[in-house]
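Entry:
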Amino acid sequence: MDLTGEFDRARRLIFAADEQAAKDLLLSLMPRIEQADRDDLMMEVFAQLGEIYLVRTAYNGVEECVRRIDDCLAIYRSIRAGTNPEAAAQVTMTDREIDHMLCRYTRRAQFLRTGYAAAYHGDHEGAELALLVLCNDCNDGAGQDFPDLADEYQHLITYARIICATALCDDDLYVQSVPLWDKVIEAIERPGPGREADDFLFVQAATGYGRFCIETGRLSEAEPWLRRAGARAEARGWALAKARTQLERGAAASTRADWRETQTLVHEAYPAIVEGYRAHDVARSWLYLGLIAIAVGELGDADERLRHAEQHWRDVERPLHIHRILLQRSWVDILRNEFDSATEKVVEAWRILDSWPRHTWLQYARLDDHMGTILRARALADPNNAAARLEQAADLKIPAALAVDSVRYAIADANARMRWATSVSARMLAGAFAVVYEWGKTDLLSEMIEYHCARGAFRAEPKAAAIAEWMDAATAAVPVEAEEEYALVASGAISVGDTSGLTRLGPLPPLRMDPGVPPIIGRYRELARERYGRDITADEAAWSTWP
């Protein structure tokens, strides 16, 4: 029974993101396969269906496909082990053919297990172990080498790495995804015959990596990957894949606040994304459309669009994205002076973050900073009680900004340090300076200027624990603000290493501006330590900053 052409056709439909047609085709083959009693062909059906369900977030279907493959494999394992003579008597395959089948579909099932753990559960440790098993050639102990399966095997490994890296990025675990992206890029850049499967992996990888670059501040690196992916997808006639590259380019444009380009790209991409119905991409499209509406002052349209984004993320149960979209929606309330509604959304976002086992201190720092922004906006809208609200805002925004900015001192690479300062800590520091200025606390403002001018001190030896702590915190996705903050009122030059062996920045000791008073911003440094576990200054004797 030769169904090779039908399986190839189903595979091409999957590459083209026409999963419904591929599913219908595969299901139509099952009666003929059952009648012929071909277990190998039935496992091929379930392997391809499992990929379809994984892409379409139908995770119950993935589980069922893995179970059906495993059940079949278990029978043939027992036959090879000599423990199932009744089944062995009915088998017409040779031992090598059985071993070939065991090797192939054990790998295919392991691929599905890896993708399922990463994409559905967010079980990144489990996905890492499953990927390790896959990479160690889970050939069921048969000890046979099957060269004809080598290309498929490498395809599975690279595709699994793409899924795992993408899932890590969805959970803000960007740093942990770097080793996976490195291996993926190495794989797709190797010269190859230009098969459809190779192009599929390239487009998937380049699109995912482009998004990773955008969300970690590497905009110039993202553009070439996304354009290459889009061109290759267009050459294959893969409309959805091309649209996804346009969506990512639109995300990059929104980060630059180029709303005209954002609108052009997202509108071009949206029809194919809707037709392909990737709920996550549909939600992201509505997010950027909502941000465009905010930028042009159409707050009613913005709220409606952001509601659509939230609903799609709720449909696919993405807690971190729901938490983020609630913060974005609260900006609409802030701009409407509906501060109670904005506060309710932030409180809900807080509850969602509490329920997510992989939350980080950085996400809580951003929530505190945003709640401080609401208090600041309320104070500016109603001067009668402004001082008290600005004080509350300062209690939230200053410790959060200090904690986030302290990460710079643990980043050895100058480019990464600049990206963190520009994309993450600068916005929060700007808000902290602004609220102190509006509060009228000139003494506190001068202390913050002194702290920020000093920035950090060089250390002779890197502290591995400090670097590891930064990696655990992860580089969070950079949210697009709905309004421009005040510029930083002070800044200092970044020092560089010299021949004395001083190689990297470290935290300063406490600073004392006046011999008669304690070190500066002491209360806020302590709040940062209590709330986020960040030591803003080194545990050393205070430095005097007066002449």
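The longest strand covers residues 457-459.
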